[in-house]
């Protein structure tokens, strides 16, 4: 039987643990809190993140990373992107030499501008055949209710992608394989930044044309960055690109979207953080995405405008004025 350790018992770690278990994979969920692990094991529920959802039998929880990793074919990582490096320094040595590390995260590390698969490679020493990424339009609360979705399982090694695809294929999750790890990761990380901008537009009541324009031009600048760092531009037309940006920008279940809505309604970053208490990756990753773009000489006006609001004290109205005042140009798709 395939075994998986899932690190992070928040929304996505728990929901994706359910997917794996429903696909017949034996899952051990790691979390920091003993009381939450006990609630999961005894009550078959994660009351903090997915209240009212009964967890499948093939899923148990622990606070001990070694127990989670014992015999694991896959170690799936669903912690905040900015803590991954510190987390892996405590866990990596306990993994078997064959364990495949899988990023479920959608962020870029501050300071280094590394994608999560790059952080994994550096911290674990795993080669490309032992690294994978899963990304797509996957709102945890819908998946946990077994509502249908597609997703992308990406690894440089096709055999790794196919093994992981099998380990998470259920009647309600349809995983597609890809070899474009860079494109899938950047699609996931940058859509959170676009989601913040679209949320601000919604919060300001700017209408569907404005939001659609942000989605489309946001995808263009995401693709521009992706191509500059080695991604396949077509990946951004797929589930990990277009698919995810549409789900994020359109859903009130998206934390990034809702964070932006609060800002657009006039709340401060501190007030929005208090309302959206869960991980909204774009709030931090907008800075690392923009820095990555600048390192590669790529223009990302929407990401720059989001950084202006979230970190430099600009108002969403100023963001709108800045974006609309840009000089006229032809519509390059990236
Ligand atoms: N929620 C979704 O719908 C969804 C879907 C796809 C991808 N993701 C991505 O998955 C990742 C996790 O998101 P989430 O929704 O599960 O977030 P969450 O806020 O629901 O859960 C985060 C988990 O990480 C834990 N955590 C926080 N700080 C930690 C630390 N320093 N060390 C170890 N653990 C720590 C928290 O206790 C919690 O269990 C993010 O990168 C997110 O973009 C989320
Ligand atoms: O809640 P968000 O904004 O982190 O989005 C969740 C997923 O990434 C959507 O695919």
TrEMBL record:
User: Do the record's keywords include Repeat?
Assistant: no
Domain Glycerol-3-phosphate dehydrogenase NAD-dependent C-terminal span(s) in chain numbering: 180-320
Question: What sequence ranges are listed for the domain Glycerol-3-phosphate dehydrogenase NAD-dependent N-terminal?
Answer: 5-160
Q: Which residues form the active site?
A: 191 (proton acceptor)
What pathway does the UniProt record associate with this protein? Answer: Membrane lipid metabolism; glycerophospholipid metabolism
Q: Which InterPro entries match?
A: 6-PGluconate_DH-like_C_sf (IPR008927), 6PGD_dom2 (IPR013328), G3P_DH_NAD-dep (IPR006168), G3P_DH_NAD-dep_C (IPR006109), G3P_DH_NAD-dep_N (IPR011128), NAD(P)-bd_dom_sf (IPR036291)
- Please give the start and end residues of each transmembrane region: none
List ligand-binding residues for substrate: 106, 255-256
Q: GO MF annotations for this entry?
A: glycerol-3-phosphate dehydrogenase [NAD(P)+] activity; NAD binding
A GO CC term?
A: cytosol
Tell me the residue numbers annotated for binding NADPH. 12, 32-33, 49, 106, 140, 255, 281
Q: Which family does it belong to?
A: Belongs to the NAD-dependent glycerol-3-phosphate dehydrogenase family.
Q: What does this protein do?
A: Catalyzes the reduction of the glycolytic intermediate dihydroxyacetone phosphate (DHAP) to sn-glycerol 3-phosphate (G3P), the key precursor for phospholipid synthesis.
Protein name per Swiss-Prot or TrEMBL: Glycerol-3-phosphate dehydrogenase [NAD(P)+]
List the source organism. Answer: Actinospica durhamensis
């Amino acid at each position: 039987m395939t075994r998986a350790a899932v690190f992070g018992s928040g929304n996505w770690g728990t929901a994706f643990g359910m997917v794996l278990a429903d696909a017949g994979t034996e899952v051990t969920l790691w979390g920091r809190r003993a009381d939450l692990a006990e609630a999961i094991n005894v009550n078959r529920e994660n009351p903090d993140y997915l209240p009212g959802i009964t967890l499948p039998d093939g899923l148990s929880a622990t606070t001990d990373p070694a127990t989670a990793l014992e015999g694991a074919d896959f170690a799936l990582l669903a912690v905040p992107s900015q803590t991954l490096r510190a987390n892996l320094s405590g866990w990596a040595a306990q993994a078997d030499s064959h364990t495949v590390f899988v990023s479920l995260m959608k962020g870029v590390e501050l300071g280094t501008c590394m994608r999560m698969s790059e952080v994994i490679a550096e911290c674990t020493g795993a080669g490309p055949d032992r690294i994978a990424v899963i990304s797509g339009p996957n709102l945890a609360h819908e998946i946990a209710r077994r509502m249908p979705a597609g997703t992308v399982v990406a690894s440089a090694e096709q055999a790794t992608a196919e093994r992981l695809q099998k380990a998470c294929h259920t009647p309600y999750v349809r995983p597609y394989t890809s070899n474009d790890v860079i494109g899938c990761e950047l699609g996931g990380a940058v859509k959170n930044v676009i989601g913040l901008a679209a949320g601000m537009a919604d919060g300001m009541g700017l209408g569907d044309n404005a939001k659609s324009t942000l989605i489309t031009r946001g995808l263009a600048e995401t693709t521009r960055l992706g191509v500059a760092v080695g991604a396949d531009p077509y990946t951004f037309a797929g589930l990990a690109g277009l698919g995810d940006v549409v789900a994020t920008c359109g859903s009130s279940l998206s934390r990034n979207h809702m964070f932006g809505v609060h800002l657009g309604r006039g709340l401060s970053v501190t007030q929005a953080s208090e309302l959206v208490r869960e991980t909204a990756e774009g709030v931090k990753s907008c800075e690392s995405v923009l820095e990555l773009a600048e390192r590669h000489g790529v223009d990302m006006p929407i990401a720059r405008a989001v950084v202006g609001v979230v970190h430099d004290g600009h108002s969403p109205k100023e963001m709108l004025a800045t974006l609309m005042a840009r000089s006229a140009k032809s519509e390059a798709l990236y």
